Amino acid sequence: MADERPPIQLELPLPFPELSGDMPLLPARMINEYQYCPRLAYLEWVQGEWAASADTVEGDHAHRRVDKPSKSFPEADELDDAEKLHGRSITLSSNRLGLIAKLDLIEAEDGVVTPIDYKRGKRPHVARGAYDPERVQLCVQGMVLQEHGYVCEEGALYFVQSRERVRVAFDEELKQLTANAINGLRLIAAGGHIPEPLQDSPKCSGCSLVGICLPDEVNYLRHADLEPRPLAVMRDEALPVYVQAWKAKIGKKGEELEISIDDEKVQTARLVDTSQVVVMGNVYITTPCLQDLMKREIPVSWHSHGGWFVGHTIGTGHKNVELRTAQYKASFDDKTCLAIARNLVRAKIQNCRTQARRNWRADEPVELLLEPLKSLADKSQRAADLPQLLGIEGAAAALYFGAFDKLIKKPDDSKQMSFDFNTRNRRPPTDPVNALLSFAYAMLVRTWTMNLSAVGLDPYRGFYHQPRYGRPALALDLMEPFRPIIADSTVLQVINNGEVRPTDFICAAGSVALNEDGRKRFITAFERRLSQEVTHPIFGYKANYRQVFEIQARLFGRYLLGELPEYPNFTTR
């Protein structure tokens, strides 16, 4: 009987040449991450992803003492054999090895140095006293010390919670394991292909990047053999801060934003509780405040006084050039653009049907609207090109907005002012309902623009909406399915619940816009809608719409990078 075992895949070392040009050194921590999970190392090292968690915060706290660097530490040839020395937070590198390591603590005694790496938590009770990723990271530190001429034969891991040291000998087995990890990380970085996600691994639930990696979601969409586990990410309590008062000023004092009008403080907001700053109209932000917001990666979005989204200010931006390269490449392929656009339009029409069915208030059956919308949703999949698809979307919008008035609650007393809607119009909107819709869409564009920038995509290079100066085409693309269930839903909610009244509008030169008080109430309702928790229609777990937006943006990135066969649109039932 023939041997059916798969052939052994040999690992060839990828030697690192003497450092030249902009060739990067591999950090010891990244080699630790590779040993833990190659995909995690690729996300952090190649794509520049990072997310804090309770574990990383606890780790930073455990390192607070050794993060204070020593004034000096003697070179290898200057060590005194009779002297005991300690050095904290020392960074060493080797151009020949292509490695760099930050050593928490170095102890020198009798001419021998020992690196001590601080770890949070308690010592694990495993065979070698510690897990391989931590042992490998310590071995890298030993390699760099040896390269600098120090005598270094072992290291130690210090576990802060149990206050125990675990000795780690740099034997041949550990050196080989470390060399394999170094070569493996170099190989995947040079190859430019993200490793496969782990399948049903207990490592994923404790990983800070699980919401970025999406291992269960990617595996489910590719194989559909394992239900995704609930997405357990750190709850983000931060919310946007809106400033719309005429000639308001935003400054920074300590750890707070300070909003003042005519040099009189009217409000404060803690920076730790601020996810972004939204300014409307003539609002001034001081330079120190703006710089600090950029350092903290808190974006600022700029709107006209009427709410039209103008642009946003961020820091240096996301490092994931690989993702943007894939986006640009795909955006020049007509077949890819059409495939993405077809699915976006179908999802939008399906969500319009759901919105109409949930809010129908007319006497005639809602099926008279739902059936033709369903027909157009199916027809969108057969569109031969983008102009034909635009025509299908326009026909669906005409049907939907033609019946939009039947979703609006009318007052019991006919003498009371009511919201009447005849047709969709914009630039400028000529009635209160259209003013609300335009404002809601502007806020949704801003939300998606910020979201796409945060995950590393370029919001201005789209697939359905063609690029045009100043237009966030990709944000307009991916927000299409969410127009009815976020923007339209919020408009219907504030009208039908009486949160916004017909008297909350101002009319000028044939256009209608919300006044300041009405805008405050609408913004509150919009943010409340984003915080609403829903069941994801594909994965089955609960998430609020803010998290859904990030999940969808990251899944779109996974699709562009070739990990998914198609982009899974979000459609409600």
Describe the structure.
The protein is α/β, with parallel strands linked by helices and 573 residues long. The chain has 18 helices and 18 strands. The protein has helices spanning 28-36, 38-45, 54-62, 132-147, 172-191, 202-205, 210-213, 215-223, 287-295, 321-331, 334-359, 367-380, 386-402, 432-455, 473-479, 482-496, 516-530, 545-560; strands spanning 26-27, 85-94, 99-109, 112-119, 154-159, 164-169, 239-243, 248-253, 256-261, 264-270, 274-280, 284-285, 300-303, 309-313, 505-508, 511-514, 533-535, 542-544. Strands 1, 2, 3, 4, 5 and 6 form a six-stranded mixed beta sheet that branches. A four-stranded mixed beta sheet has the order 7-11-13-14. α1 runs antiparallel to α2 (38-45) and α14 (432-455) packs across α15 (473-479). The longest helix is centred in the middle third of the chain and has 26 residues, at 334-359. The mean pLDDT is 82.
